[in-house]
Amino acid sequence: MHQARGEKHWIIPDGFIPPKSAPGDYVSHESICVLNCSSEEAQLQITIFFEDREPLENISVAVAGRRTYHIRTSSLSANGASIPVGVPYAIEVLSDIPIIVQYSRLDATQAANALMSVVAYPIK
Amino acid sequence: MHQARGEKHWIIPDGFIPPKSAPGDYVSHESICVLNCSSEEAQLQITIFFEDREPLENISVAVAGRRTYHIRTSSLSANGASIPVGVPYAIEVLSDIPIIVQYSRLDATQAANALMSVVAYPIK
Amino acid sequence: MHQARGEKHWIIPDGFIPPKSAPGDYVSHESICVLNCSSEEAQLQITIFFEDREPLENISVAVAGRRTYHIRTSSLSANGASIPVGVPYAIEVLSDIPIIVQYSRLDATQAANALMSVVAYPIK
Amino acid sequence: MHQARGEKHWIIPDGFIPPKSAPGDYVSHESICVLNCSSEEAQLQITIFFEDREPLENISVAVAGRRTYHIRTSSLSANGASIPVGVPYAIEVLSDIPIIVQYSRLDATQAANALMSVVAYPIK
């Protein structure tokens, strides 16, 4: 059995889904990249915070044991609601077992793509 | 009631507002991205440090409870003074309750944009 | 004798080797950048995690004392298996002595390159 | 008097000075961005580590009190030796008082620039 590693609570203050993509190899997207080092499945609860409206809560995602999962934020939804494009937001990830979380954005608004990435902030 | 999370004191050593933007979808900008997990409003005091002059102090910003706020640095001002473009500077964020802070820059000087982002450094 | 600094266990959740490179100065690549501050050689064991298959384990790399080593992920292999291009993965680095680890990606899929970098997450 | 904040010892494993710049607004460069929150001057000692040769040691830099300093790595030298371009290296920053350190790279090898940034790793 492999041990769980990392933390159970992670924050990413800068989320933004670029509203368009230029023609080319890539489509604009963001990923919440999770590593689950343990042998058990991890159960994640994701909350999305906005500037001007109530949070989108209780989005559930599972990450299998000894696997990574690069979650596209555009695929997340709760009660039929998903994250609008072109709007500033923030991400909270809670997990039932320790995991490690990184966030990356590929902005393909233009033919010339731009990339950014941060390790999320762990709440201990 | 939701609990405040994170830290009350954050540092970003590398600030720079690109002086120009190429025509296109984006304008060059920087954002101080804050998440306030608590149910209470957070009161922020921002200080801007320069290489060759006295700091710009006592810039006040409020972030509502259970909200994120992506603050454009070009919008900050104290006593009529704001951050000049094209000049290296650094940012200190103090908050009355714990928050989480990330900093991102979109440089649209050229038609081909560039992006960078860091989680700010927490002073504990 | 110089002392070892940093941590022995580091995680990078977002790995991805871009499948192609446009003609130009750069080829798409990722690097695991290690600094070994000590006078002794560091022995690293790297594990690669995937979304849909078993991890690639026991990849050995040595980093000489008082040296840095910027390891191209495309050069890593274990039992004849290496990391496929165009597939999301995650990286775990274990070292017998403390080191510091940063991860950077240059995406040269297009003529206009994109860069991202994070300090890896230390497990303490 | 303002108090010193941060740490006295910081590491950046991924240094690289791009060997060329395309014509345009920017020249390829890297900066070690320091914030000195205290009222006193900070005395820095920088060491540069390579993959295949002895470190470049005892590079001295001063950062004034209540100031930031964005140090171009290409400006650093010790005993007449400076950092060669196009070579992987790593950076260690020691300070006599606590400071905060971030590292950013602008790669203008191509007309389309790329940016990356990390907060340096603090040794506690």
Automatic annotation (TrEMBL), chains A, B, C, D:
<dbReference type="InterPro" id="IPR036698">
    <property type="entry name" value="TM1070-like_sf"/>
</dbReference>
<protein>
    <recommendedName>
        <fullName>Sensory rhodopsin transducer</fullName>
    </recommendedName>
</protein>
<dbReference type="Pfam" id="PF07100">
    <property type="entry name" value="ASRT"/>
</dbReference>
<dbReference type="InterPro" id="IPR009794">
    <property type="entry name" value="ASRT"/>
</dbReference>
